[in-house]
Design brief:
With 87 residues, the protein is α+β, with helices and mostly antiparallel strands. The chain has one domain (17-77). It has helices at residues 24-36, 63-72, and strands at 17-21, 42-46, 53-58, 75-77. The chain has a 4-stranded antiparallel beta sheet with strand order 2-3-1-4, with helices on one face. Helix 1 runs antiparallel to helix 2. It is globular.
Amino acid sequence: MRKLPPIDAASNWSAWSPARFQTADARDGFLRSVADTQDEGWAAQAMPNEDRAAQVRWRPRRFLGLNDIAYAHGGRIIVAIVRRGML
């Protein structure tokens, strides 16, 4: 299992999550789109040694916009659901 960079506790960014794409060109298009709009509260970078994957993170209330960009490029963001405490 790949170890992702740690969460920056000084900010309100999410943890890095993987995003998978059908082709390297689709992933590269996604990375260009995110770079053009990174002030929207999200970030992405290529995942080393994987030409069809990226790692992404976002600020609160920004996931859906980032997910829309990934989907538009034929990708999907893989998010682990963590349950904290009992309901």
